[in-house]
Amino acid sequence: MVVFDCERMKHPNTGLAVFCENVASNLVRQHASIKAPLCLYTPARYRGKWGNDVEYKTVHEADKLHLFCGRAVQVWHSAYQHTAYIPPKAVKQVLTVHDLNFLYEKPMRKHHRYLASLQRHIDRADHIVSISESTKRDLMDNVNLRGKHVEVVYNGLNHFDGDMVPPVSKPKGEFLFSVGTVLPKKNFHVLPALLKDNDFTLIIAGNKSSYEKKIMEEAENHGVSDRVFVIGPVTDAVKYWYIKNCSAFLFPSVAEGFGLPVVEAMYYQKPIFLSDRTSLPEIGQNHVFYFDHDFDPDSMRAQFRAGLEMFEKGGIDKDLMRQHALSFSWERTARRYIEIYNEMLYRF
Q1: Could you tell me if residue 301 is left (phi over 0), alpha (psi between -120 and 50 degrees) or otherwise beta?
Q2: What pLDDT was estimated at residue 239?
């Protein structure tokens, strides 16, 4: 049996939950290719979510102390690099490492603790996957891989097949959009500066935190607080409405393992403005615009105006942008994981 750990779905509207849901869905669609039964390890509310062709194991807190697998389990895929749910040594483990964001956002005094945790997981894993070359470089530079190979398997593009739904309160006029958990690493507080000398509204969607206060303080400093809205999490139907209808998509994050919203915005052929940190240049390549490393407000405004003008004049090939977005496929992601499972089952 192969078990895919979807435990992180307990935190909806996060990148890890999106990863688990999309990989699980595509594993189920292709489960006939796995040379063993597929089991999904899920929070109780997701039990049965993907139908009856696969098995389910429910997450329990006690599993952190002792994760009972049974003899049928041969491969366990841990979908989170700091997971508390570790299979017995007799079970081969695939470990997906999404990022080492703590290096960029945590106080340095905490780095040792997080690196020690990651090292233990690396030592335990039989096959290590990172979701970008950027994450792979961070691993190689900061942990002892002990000769283990790190394979890069990219995330996919999220396709929305339903009807887009406008928000209850639609923005008045043109608006800029960003989405992500509202945390300091997302660097959203640099965005209100872009509203100076124009009529744009800024919409930021995502799970809220106390960091919202800093965003609004910056909005107040620039005299644009009446045009900045941190709206909390939204449904996919609303999120994709915002992406499709925005005048530009902004993502100034300073710590990303991949950057799923960037791929979504590329699919909808929007002018996109990113930071030049961690994985974002790798994912955006030459299909987007980048803010300077120091996020100086005057420089950002100049880059933003120049980028919008360049995009309007065809300086970014929209067709190539969409093709690039389509090159990221959850189906291919799951297919590669299945190949890894089968290789490990063969060695079992």
Answers
A1: alpha
A2: 97
Q: Cβ distance 270 to 264 under 8 Å?
A: no
CATH of 175-326, one of 2.40.50.100, 3.40.50.2000, 3.80.30.20, 3.40.50.300: 3.40.50.2000
Same fold, 2-156+329-347 and 175-326: yes
Which residues sit opposite 202 in a β-bridge? 176, 228
Q: In the predicted model, what is the mean pLDDT of residues 236-261? A: 97
Structure tokens belonging to residue 124: 């335990």
**pLDDT band at residue 348 under the 50/70/90 scheme:** low
| Angle in degrees, 0-180, between the axes of helices 318-326 and 260-267, rounded to the nearest 10 | 130
Residue pointed to by tokens 């403005």: 273
Domain boundaries in the chain? 2-156+329-347, 175-326
The beta strand positions in 89-184, using DSSP E, are 92-97, 127-130, 150-152, 175-179
In which order are the strands placed within the sheet that holds 228-232?
Answer: 228-232, 201-205, 175-179, 248-251, 272-274, 289-290
CATH of domain 2-156+329-347: 3.40.50.2000
pLDDT in the model for residue 291: 96
Strands (DSSP E) contained in 55-119 are: 55-58, 75-78, 92-97
In this structure, are strands 75-78 and 272-274 parallel, antiparallel, or unpaired?
unpaired
* Bridge partner list, 128: 95, 150
